[in-house]
Structure formats: C-alpha cells, structure tokens
Amino acid sequence: xxxxxxxxxxxxxxxxxxxxxxxxxxxxxxxxxxxxxxxxxxxxxxxxxxxxxxxxxxxxxxxxxxxxxxxxxxxxxxxxxxxxxxxxxxxxxxxxxxxxxxxxxxxxxxxxxxxxxxxxxxxxxxxxxxxxxxxxxxxxxxxxxxxxxxxxxxxxxxxxxxxxxxxxxxxxxxxxxxxxxxxxxxxxxxxxxxxxxxxxxxxxxxxxxxxxxxxxxxxxxxxxxxxxxxxxxxxxxxxxxxxxxxxxxxxxxxxxxxxxxxxxxxxxxxxxxxxxxxxxxxxxxxxxxxxxxxxxxxxxxxxxxxxxxxxxxxxxxxxxxxxxxxxxxxxxxxxxxxxxxxxxxxxxxxxxxxxxxxxxxxxxxxxxxxxxxxxxxxxxxxxxxxxxxxxxxxxxxxxxxxxxxxxxxxxxxxxxxxxxxxxxxxxxxxxxxxxxxxxxxxxxxxxxxxxxxxxxxxxxxxxxxxxxxxxxxxxxxxxxxxxxxxxxxxxxxxxxxxxxxxxxxxxxxxxxxxxxxxxxxxxxxxxxxxxxxxxxxxxxxxxxxxxxxxxxxxxxxxxxxxxxxxxxxxxxxxxxxxxxxxxxxxxxxxxxxxxxxxxxxxxxxx
Length: 606
Hints:
Elements: E1 2-9, H1 16-25, E2 33-39, E3 42-48, E4 61-62, E5 68-76, H2 79-88, H3 100-109, E6 119-127, E7 132-137, E8 146-150, E9 153-157, H4 160-163, H5 175-184, E10 197-199, E11 204-208, E12 214-218, H6 232-250, E13 257-260, H7 265-277, E14 283-289, H8 298-308, E15 311-317, H9 319-324, H10 326-333, H11 342-353, E16 358-360, H12 365-369, H13 379-388, H14 403-409, H15 412-417, H16 423-431, H17 438-464, E17 469-471, H18 477-485, H19 499-505, H20 531-543, H21 545-550, H22 555-566, H23 571-589
Parallel strand pairs: 13-14, 13-16, 14-15, 16-17
Antiparallel strand pairs: 1-3, 1-9, 2-3, 4-5, 5-6, 6-7, 7-11, 8-9, 8-10, 11-12
Helix pairs in contact: 2-3, 6-19, 7-8, 10-23, 11-17, 14-22, 16-17, 20-22
C-alpha cells in the first residue's frame, strides 16, 4: 500500500520541490520509502508501504528499455501467475514487486491489460514512446485516485491533500458537494468538495496525451454482469472454490497480516477460511465501548476467535477517547464524510498498526450478497416507492437535519446547491437495464455510490492514516460478479438477507453464528456533547470562518439549544459542523498539521 502523486505539463519541466511536498503529504500512506522521477514534462512521486518484495520494490519503477515509468498504490493479487505469463511472452522484470506486472501488462496489451489484473490498485504509468500518461483505478474503487485538468497541466494524487501542492491555487468549495455532505453524509460521483478536483471513477482508465486531452476508458462495469439461474447448492458449489482461490491470492504477503473481527457473518467467514490456510494463530482485533455491552459485538467476536484459536485483542473504548480521534479522522478522510464509525475504526487501526502492516476486513459482503435491511422491501413497498420517486425508487433518501433548522440555517448558496443532491444516486439508478428488478438495482446503486464513495473511503483513510493496509476479499471482482449474477431468491428470502452466504457458512461457524441479524456499529457520540463541552463547542463553531461563510449565524445557537434540551437531537448536525470547521483547518489552512488520535477537537477549531 502506498501513496502516489504526479503531474504532466503542457510545456516545461516539473517542479521537484512540489513533487517532494506532495509525497510528504502522503507520507502516512507509505512510511517505508519514497521516490521522485521526472522525464520529459512528467513528474511522478511515490511513498511506499513495503508489503511484497521488501528490499527491491522501490518506486517509481522503470522498465529495462526506458520506455515506461510507473507509480502504483495497492496490490495485484494474481501477480505470480501474471508474471509467469508475461515472462513467457518475453517480458524482462527488474523487481519481484507485484506492481511491476502493471507496467508489463500495459506494454503487451495496452489499456486492455487492466482486465488481467486481479487486485486493488490506483496507478500512473508514463510512456516515453508516445508521451502519454495513463491513470488507472481498480474495478470497485477500493483504492483512491484524484486528478485535476487545467489548461497547462494535469495533476493527480492518492489524496486531495497530496494533490494541492501540484496546483497553482486551492480551488473553491463546491456548494453542491457541501450540500450533499450535510444531507446524505458523503459526496458521491466524480466531483469532490473542491471544484475542478475529480475522482477517477472505478473500473476506468484516463489516457492523457501530450496535448493534455484526457480520454476516459471503462474497462469493467457491473452493468455487464449477466443474470443467471442457479439453484442454491449449485451456487454454493461455485462459491466454495472461488472464495478459496480469492482468499489465497489475498493472503500473499511478505509481512504478517491480521483480521478485524466484528462478530458478524462476513468477518466470521474470513476468520474460518484464513485459519484454514494460515500457518500460525491469526491476529484478530475487535472494538467496543467500556462500561456497556449496548451495540457491542465483542462477545460474538470473542466466540469466533476462541472457536478458531486466534490471538485476539479487544479494545474497550471510553467515548471521550473516541471523540478525541475526530481531528485525525477528519484530516485523514480528505473529502467531507459523515460516518462516526470512522472514529472507533481508526483507534482499532492504530492498535493493529503497532504490530502489523496488513489486515483483512469484511467490507462488501452486504452489497454483494444483499445483507442490508433496505434490500428487503416488500413488492408493494417497492411499487409505491417507485411511483412516488421514479428516478430512484426513493432509494437512499433521508436527512439527519431537522427541516426547520435546515431551512432557517443554510445560507443562500448552500441552499441552492441542494437541487443536485441526489444526482449521483439518480444516475446510478438510471444506468441499470430495464429488465433488472429492485434488488439488483439497489445493489448496483450502492456499489456505485455508498460503497465506493463512503465505506471504502473509510477503510482506506482510517487504516492508511497509520500505515496499515486493508484487504477486502468480498470485493474481488470475481466474487462481485458471482454475487450480482445470482437470482434474488438466493440473496433474500423473506426478511433474511445473504441467504447463500448463510447457507454456505453454516458448517464453518459456531452454532447460530450464520443466523445472526445484521447490526450496525453505533457510535453514541451524543454522550460527549453535553454540559460545559457543548457550550464551548457552540462558541468555537460560531467563530469558525467556514461556518460563518456557508451558514446563518443563528444556526449554531439553535443547534446547541436543541442538544441541551434533548440530549441527542442535534448530535449529527453538530458533528457535521465540527467536521467542516476541522476540515477547513487541515485541508485549506494548515495542510501540514498532523493531529494525533488523542486530541481535544475544540483546540483545532478556530
């Protein structure tokens, strides 16, 4: 796992100091090594977290003939098989790094070579032959890549904070993206919180010629997955060897790995299968709250850990400890994103990173095999929602803001930005074929929006903030293609989701574990926003430049009064305002600041 950044200019040579600063801003992603390479009008920067080929995987990687230069972030899990194929075709490798297979796959097959890569990746490859820069991103968007197209340059980086040193000025905030953050909780689609900075979409490559004309190519889409008719046992017989193949590829590493064990079905399956193939007790971690079992999955996680004999660590967090991680999480997230689960996740990542560089997580199982309750609407509910909201079937709508406070508190520019709130969701819903039913359309919409732009951002940023790589086997594209191809009855049966996973996993897990209901991981942050801290927070927020710019002055006192009166009624909006104020501090005003996970958030708001 690494950080990458770079630039291609219309004319002239890249500025080494800017590239070095970009790499420094990404140092948390790759604390083990760094490198900068310039050729023609292109500059590439890399920071490395050493996972495979510890001694010889320095980047940028150059081919033996000097035709290509590559920087890559992620893992190519089938590099062993792909390297053998490419060497048989005459390719000469300079390293044993999995990333070098990207370079030779492109040399042999062009952009079509991306279809041969099984993994999570974002890369930039420059060809001196035709003076072309190629940016590529994995099929599901597991690894991030941002870019900006200007008249005199195209710049890119793994994170926004690493991209900004390569631009002549910091772009303006997008009202649409800010409104989407407040309403939905994250910003979806290609646009970001800063105007002109875009995300390279999952499953695509961007080809940029020396005239700086970008051409986007889609090399994979979940829309192309055909529907199949399979019986339950047939599907399980197909899933079993495929899951083993995927997991054994994901286990390739020159450093030890562990598992985030939630106590749920998805991580329980990973525990069972990783224990089968591993040579030593697996290192596992779970998180909960001190003094209460409410919302905790610690007992379930411990039961699974004991069943398979893992070396298990429980983190029991005080809520104030969770609150203190907010500055670090806001800086790490890069774009604005409301997901309080980032806070305990970051503290678990911090604990794991003290001894590991790689952990497995269960993200993706709910989207691929239909685990969420929102997938289990009755036919009548589906029809009614489609009539009321034909562009999305009312899918993924809702707000944590009291309507009256939003109307009175949002400034005119922010309120105007709300007209495009559900554009990305509507676009994803509209892309689906006419013959698809509600369940598959909902899965596709989640994969294109919530998964890529929220959940995977959380995994990447909270882990990489501590130099920890997260591997997500359920999002291997072969697993995704199997899951989406299945008929609805193998995914949802009555009020139960993940039917195929539950049936397949029943012999693997402790009795009753495969039958457990899906539970979200609550973060009762409202317990902290009380008393003197709440009053201090109100004063800090009211003085924040960004809040004064985008919101009306009466909003903060109204939210504080609501929180004081109800105890929890304004927790979400207050936390979002804190995030906005902190984001302005770390991304716009002081991007070199590096808060720890043990800060008083109010000290950083101003």
